[in-house]
Amino acid sequence: MIIGHSMSGGAATIAAATAPDLITGVIELAPFTRKQLNDLGGLMRVKRYRAGATRMGRVALLGSLPAWKQYLDLAYPVKPADWDSELARIEAKLSEPGRMKALQAMCQSAADAGAQLPNVACPVLVIEGSADPDWADPRAEGERIIADLPEGLGELAVIEGAGHYLHAQTAEQVVALTLPFLARTVTRA
Predict the structure, then answer these.
(1) How many angstroms separate the CA atoms of 51 and 57, rounded?
(2) Rounded CA gap, 16 and 96, in Å?
(3) Distance (Å, rounded) from C-alpha 20 to C-alpha 113?
(4) Helix axis angle, 65-75 relative to 83-94, nearest 10°?
(5) Sign of CA dihedral 42, 45, 47, 51
(6) The CATH number, out of the four listed (3.40.50.11720, 3.30.497.10, 3.40.50.1820, 3.10.290.10), of the domain defined by the range 2-186
(7) Considering only CA atoms, which of 46, 78, 72, 73 is closest in space to residue 161?
(8) Could you give the CA distance from residue 122 to residue 24 in angstroms, rounded to a whole number?
(9) pLDDT at 188
(10) Cα 81 from chain centroid?
(11) In terms of Cα–Cα distance, which of 100, 32, 109, 29 is closest to 68?
(12) Residues 89-101: tens digit of each pLDDT
């Protein structure tokens, strides 16, 4: 079993496709599995998506810490109880030498794990947050991932009101979706 969030969601897909004897199931949380193309229509229609893309562009191109903090404000529509201390920790870490460059490199990554989706042989649960600013339509992104998997292997859940960091914002809901999936997939191992 492997769980990946965001960019590591794509890494989980690659692991499952290339090591099917080791991976019995995959859970992808708000994953960047497929190559992302700018959704021009979505940029025009969806304010949350336009704001997220603008802020991420400033991070990727300029290394802007204020833009990253503004992106996080969008990506966490429901703030965890420790939000203020977490934001201070993030700011301190990204102020260390080389950290912003690493974040910029991640933002500019053009990795495409989507090509591996047809090679996955285990069950996959994709969990999206309906308020994730990384997609104009997070549900549609999840549906496209499921559609590219072999028939019957994928399932999609969308947590209403959750953003990109749904495991931190809605941990109980993520656990409630994860435990039954684990019970089904672990028994296959």
Answers:
(1) 10
(2) 34
(3) 15
(4) 150
(5) positive
(6) 3.40.50.1820
(7) 78
(8) 6
(9) 59
(10) 21
(11) 100
(12) 999 999 999 999 9
Residue 28, classified by CB atoms within 10 Å of its CB into exposed (0-12), middle (13-18) or buried (19+), is buried
Structure tokens at 2: 């492997």
What does the block give as tokens for 46? 């969806």
Cα–Cα distance measured from residue 38 to residue 174, given in angstroms and rounded to the nearest whole number = 28
Pick from 139, 119, 129: nearest CA to 166: 129
**pLDDT digits 0-9 by tens, 29-76:** 999 898 877 777 878 898 999 999 999 999 999 999 999 999 999 999
Token pair, residue 73, equals: 């404000």
Question: Exposed e or buried b for every residue in 97-119, given b needs 16+ CB within 10 A?
Answer: eeebeebbeebeeeeebbebbee
**Which of 187, 157, 154, 151 lies closest to 175 in space, CA to CA?**
157
**d(C-alpha 14, C-alpha 119), whole Å:** 9
Residue type, 79: K
Q: What is the largest CA-CA distance in the chain?
A: 48
Q: Is 125 exposed, middle or buried (0-12, 13-18, 19+ CB in 10 A)?
A: buried
